[in-house]
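Hello,

Our lab assistant flagged a job as stuck in the queue for most of the afternoon. It eventually completed. Since we weren't sure the result was trustworthy after the delay, we are filing this so someone can double-check. Below is the sequence as submitted and the structure that was eventually returned. Let us know if re-running is recommended.
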Amino acid sequence: MRETKEHRSDGDLLSDATARLHHATGGLNFHLEMFGNELAKREGYREYKAMDAIHFYLMTKHGWLPRDIRSMSFDDLRFALGEEMAGWTLPHNLRNSYPG
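-- returned structure --
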């Protein structure tokens, strides 16, 4: 017999919601790292990619200390890069890279 949502426990439903939340958060974090790669290309970085490129960009643009930038959550980094990321979309060749 297959379970339906009506027959599932509150704990099972909460676990499903938690799994969806973590999957969505992972997708957002993946997008942020891929934006870091695009940022590295745009800025001509040779040494920095992904999150390192984001950290270096914020450090040079705002004069923030590396320790402060590295302590920021992914949500805070997305907020700090909101204007830079406006209109940016994941390149076509990466759209199937993160399971969704």
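-- support follow-up --
The delay was a queue issue, not a problem with the job. The result is valid. The helical segments are 10-43, 50-62, 66-70, 74-80, 82-85. The chain has one domain: 9-87.
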